[in-house]
Write a structure and sequence with these properties.
Layout: E1 10-11, E2 14-30, E3 33-47, E4 50-55, H1 69-84, E5 88-89, H2 96-99, H3 106-124, H4 128-132, E6 138-140, E7 143-145, H5 150-162, E8 168-171, H6 178-187, E9 193-196, H7 206-211, E10 220-221, H8 230-238, E11 243-245, H9 252-260, E12 266-269, H10 277-289, E13 294-296, H11 303-312, E14 346-348, H12 362-367, E15 369-375
Parallel strand pairs: 7-8, 8-9, 9-10, 10-11, 11-12, 12-13
Antiparallel strand pairs: 1-5, 2-3, 2-15, 3-4, 6-14
Helix pairs in contact: 1-3, 5-6, 9-10
The chain binds 2-succinylbenzoate (OSB) and magnesium ion.
Residues 30, 64, 144, 196, 198, 246, 297-300, 323 line the site of 2-succinylbenzoate.
Length: 377
């Protein structure tokens, strides 16, 4: 018989909500625009003397998906955080009735849910990975290379290959596709190679997609519209290469529909995009039921988001290399004390303490904090 003390749950005493901005070492160019800095909401939930932390993945402008930082900050400070601060929760599952009724805003919901998962795992004294049901001490990772001239791209691919990254993803866009892939494949015949169009194409571009079949790509990521699944099914029937969906998959229902329609044969899971770990796990499990592999995407996160992603990627159906490469590829200095660096394509699971296993570098954080507010009961 379990005679342990009853856990009364964790009372969330306050929330610290900031905007943080880190300059990127080099601009990151994708089909929808160029990023020169990583600006993001950072949330710290405090309770029982413990802190749970997470970062949100929406951009300042609605260029990847619909959410914006300004919209999310309003929803967080006015609606979501007042609904949880001052209340007691025994597990992240108890957040669902609060989060589920609100339409959309998955990235805003995710940051609250993720911070609470960290807080909960810390209260139990276990790594986030264990709370989620993952195993292993490292995850396989590759690099995501922004759009650049052929010579620059070839240099970046060579560097990633030398460092032992397990996969190279090239961003493509109309007018910057077959030629760049052809050049990379010619120089690096053996590497695992993929492309990501970030929605730049239409069904009428099927011949371009079919031309990519010649280069033994592991998959073509999100060629068509961010809100489409059906046309991806048409496209998948016209190409041999697997389609991978990113932007189009927001929920386990989206995943089920996409897999039933054969609109994708691989799915990119970003916990921040899909509303949190409960949703990410439901997508992961749905894909496993369809025997479809998943991998963990990224949004150029700081060490906080990177740590969450790594713990998630230890679940069993994350069988393809993820995008969580070394933080030093993106930033001169990170907001955490630990260095998240991959070696030979393996990113160690951070375990400097329970939960996400990384700690905030408060002194540096304060120098890159643009605004800060406290939400109290
Ligand atoms: O589509 O995966 C994407 C970055 C910003 C917006 C969208 C995407 C990306 C990446 C970068 O590919 C992945 C990373 O290195 O974090
Ligand atoms: Mg993508």
């Amino acid at each position: 018989m379990n005679t342990g003390t009853l856990r009364p749950g964790i009372r969330i005493e306050s929330a610290d909500l900031r905007i943080v901005s880190l300059p990127l070492l080099s601009p990151f160019v994708i089909s929808t625009g160029t990023m020169t800095a990583k600006t993001f909401p950072l949330l710290v939930l405090k309770g029982e003397g413990i802190e749970g932390v997470a970062e949100a993945v929406m951009d300042p402008q609605p260029d990847y998906l619909e959410e914006t930082i300004a919209g999310a900050m309003d929803f967080l400070r006015r609606v979501l955080l007042p609904q949880i601060v001052g209340k007691r929760f025994s597990s992240p599952y108890e957040l669902e009735p609060i989060l589920a009724p609100w339409r959309g805003h998955r990235m805003a919901k995710a940051v609250v849910e993720m911070a609470f998962w960290d807080l909960w795992a810390k209260s139990l004294g276990i790594p986030l990975q264990a709370a989620l049901g993952g195993t292993g001490d490292s995850v396989d990772v590759g690099v995501s290379l922004g759009i650049a001239p052929v010579e620059t791209t070839l240099e970046r691919v060579a560097e990633a290959a030398e460092q032992g990254y397990k996969r190279t993803k090239l961003k493509i866009a109309r007018g910057h596709d077959v030629k760049i892939v052809e050049a990379v494949r010619a120089r690096f015949p053996g590497i695992k190679l993929t492309v990501d169009a970030n929605t730049d194409y239409g069904l009428a571009d099927s011949p371009i997609m079919r031309a990519l079949d010649a280069f033994d790509l592991d998959y073509i990521e999100q060629p068509l519209a961010y809100d489409d699944i059906r046309d991806h099914a048409k496209l998948q029937s016209r190409v041999r290469t697997a389609i991978c969906l990113d932007e189009s998959i927001r929920s386990a229902r989206d995943a089920r529909i996409a897999l039933e329609l054969d609109a994708a044969r691989v799915i990119n899971i970003k916990v921040g995009r899909v509303g949190g770990f409960m949703s990410a796990r439901a997508i992961h499990d749905t894909c496993a039921a369809f025997d479809v592999p998943v991998w963990c995407g990224g949004m150029l996160e700081s060490g906080v988001g990177r740590a969450h992603n790594i713990h998630l990627a230890t679940l069993s159906n994350f069988t393809k290399p993820g995008d969580t490469s070394s933080a030093s590829r993106y930033f001169h200095r990170d907001i955490i004390n630990e260095r998240l660096e991959a070696s030979e394509g393996k990113m160690p699971v951070p375990k400097n303490g329970p939960g996400i296993g990384v700690t905030l570098d408060h002194a540096f954080l304060s120098t890159v904090t643009e605004s800060s507010e406290e939400i109290l009961p």
